[in-house]
Design goal:
By secondary structure, this protein is an alpha+beta fold. Helices cover 15% and strands 44% of the residues. The N terminus is likely disordered.
């Protein structure tokens, strides 16, 4: 007898089938007992033995079919349960105010970021006198026809406010070891921008510890340059850092960078191009009633700049709550941008390839640039810098030195410029600066020990900061009242002392109060262009008080 058993979808049919099989097995066992107890002949005994063996074989087959039926039933039940169970879904988490969206397997993430910095400032300058005797400048005057009016108002700096940074974007990871960032900025210097791409890059991180990045970003070029603007100890970067980084690097620079890092080291090298910019033909500013309006924006060049940057940082000494950081960095401009194009003879004049070094004081409510080399016709330009930092618990000390060389193309001369800064901070409430391995720089506090809560006695984190910076853009400047030599560059020297008090009521909110004393020493580069006596002093000294209100996540 052969039974062909197939699994049934109903519980009742399965139970009936199993009962039938067990009943057959019981009948076979009863038959075996009956045969074994009855008297029989040899032939009958042989026949009974044969029937018994057949019954045992049939019973064995039934048992195997029952086992198969049970296994099939369990598999079907498991499959039903799996299909009915809810599938893992995407997740959302928030860390330090930044929401992160992740796919169910975590291979794709997107973190939203926002930075809002409102700077307010008041300047204390000497009383403004007649334009014929008050020669404070940050750039050329407009000549006698406009009564020596300074286009950038260096005689009367702007009291008021500006949204220094207003950024919104996202970064995250993609399957296969990829990272990305897209960030827009609507802030500015003196006035806000209409908005432009600030960072936009993609990075491959699948070959540890290397990271290959291409797009628009600031390639690493120094300790303060690599620091996030949300955690600067003073409202803006020191002048030597700001001027040096913008030669071949700086914000919105198109670049390809290879970087690697570990717990106590960082290294990077990059090939750089132009700065990402926008033409805004609808935004024009009248310089004066008698002059033509100028367009605000970045004009297209005839050929973009080609540069290189590199940085190496290492912590030779470190402990549980302290570390010493040493580093070197540099940049090289192999080809300045061609801003003028070919002349009437078809050849591009040397003046079309130029570099310019300039910078505002370390506060951007007013956009005046007191030190400025102007355009220097150049074949190449380079920078070399050294950095050192030490951190112990709530204390931090850092310094960098920068040296700049420009190889001129119009005359046989290679002017050099230099600058440095020293700064220190102290968290009065005991917090410690965090160290960001991915950038090789120090951030803000790792946490706020006691978030501001008057009822619970929480004060937030309180930090004191001091900085001295000196940037000298003079080369063979000469003496007061004397016309400059042929190779002279009277870019000016700027010295700034800043004392600051920073308050973090929460990890995402910060208020900064800075006092700044600024001294600019600069001789008039050109008496006719600047509408001044030959070699006149066009610098000045002033004080400023500034407040920054910041939200960053």
């Amino acid at each position: 007898m052969t039974l062909n058993l197939k699994p049934s979808s109903g519980r009742l049919s399965r139970a009936a089938l199993i009962a039938a099989l067990l009943s057959g097995a019981a009948s076979a066992a009863f038959a075996q007992d009956a045969v074994s107890t009855a008297p029989k002949s040899d032939a009958a005994s042989a026949s009974a033995d044969a029937r018994l063996e057949a019954l045992e074989a049939e019973l064995s087959s039934l048992r195997a079919q029952v086992a198969d039926l049970k296994a099939t039933t369990v598999a079907q039940i498991t499959d039903v349960r799996d299909n009915a169970a809810p599938k893992p879904s995407a997740t959302v988490s928030i860390t330090k105010g930044a929401p992160t969206f992740a796919s169910s397997d975590g291979s794709f993430t997107a973190t939203l970021h926002g930075v809002l910095q409102l700077d307010s400032a008041a300047f204390k300058q000497g009383s403004a006198g007649p334009t014929t005797t008050d020669l404070r400048r940050d750039g050329p005057g407009l000549g006698a026809s406009t009564s020596n009016t300074d286009a950038a108002h260096a005689r009367n700096l702007k009291d008021g406010d500006v949204f220094r940074r207003a950024r919104l974007g996202a970064d995250g990871t993609a399957p296969g070891g990829w990272d990305y960032r897209l960030l827009f900025d609507f802030g500015g210097t003196g006035v806000e921008n209409a908005g432009q791409l600030y960072e936009g890059w993609v990075q491959y991180s699948g070959i540890k510890p290397l990271h290959f990045r291409i797009g628009a970003f600031a390639p690493s070029l120094g300790l303060e340059d690599a620091n996030s603007t949300s955690y600067l100890p003073i409202i803006d970067r020191p002048s030597p850092t700001d001027i040096t980084r913008n030669l071949a690097g700086g914000d919105t620079r198109t670049a390809f960078q290879v970087a690697g890092y570990g717990p106590y080291w960082f290294a990077s090298a990059a090939v750089t191009g132009r700065n990402v910019g926008v033409i805004n033909t609808n935004n024009v500013i009248p310089v004066s009633a008698s002059t033509t309006s100028v367009t605000v924006g970045t004009a297209q060049t005839y050929s973009d700049q080609l540069g290189f940057t590199g940085r190496l940082a290492y912590d030779p000494l470190h402990g549980k709550d302290w570390r010493v950081n040493l580093g070197v960095h540099g940049s090289y401009v192999d080809r300045p941008a061609d801003t003028g194009g070919p002349g009437t003879n078809g050849a591009t004049p040397l003046s079309s390839y130029a570099v310019s070094l300039n910078g505002t004081p370390e506060l951007r409510v007013d956009g005046a640039k007191f030190i400025n080399t102007g355009n220097i016709p150049a074949r190449h330009a380079s920078t070399v810098g050294a950095e050192v930092a030490a951190q112990k618990g709530p204390f931090f000390l850092a310094s960098e030195y920068e040296h700049i060389t420009v190889e001129r193309s119009d005359i046989s001369s290679s002017p050099t410029f230099n600058g440095y800064y020293v700064e220190g901070t102290w968290f009065l409430t005991g917090e410690t600066k965090g160290y960001n391995q991915a950038s090789g720089a120090f951030d803000g506090p790792t946490t706020v020990n006691h978030v501001f809560n008057p009822r619970a006695g929480g004060l937030g984190a309180i930090e004191l900061a001091l900085r001295w910076s000196d940037m000298n853009l003079n080369y063979h400047a000469g003496s007061l009242g004397i016309a400059p030599a042929a190779d002279a560059i009277r870019g000016g020297e700027q010295q700034i002392f800043t004392a600051g008090l920073n308050w973090y009521p929460t990890p995402v909110v910060r208020f900064m109060l800075d006092y700044q004393h600024v001294r600019i020493d600069r001789l008039s580069p050109n008496a006719a262009a600047y509408a001044t006596p030959t070699g006149a002093q066009i610098g000045q000294s002033y004080n400023a008080l500034a407040l920054r209100s910041q939200l960053a996540f």
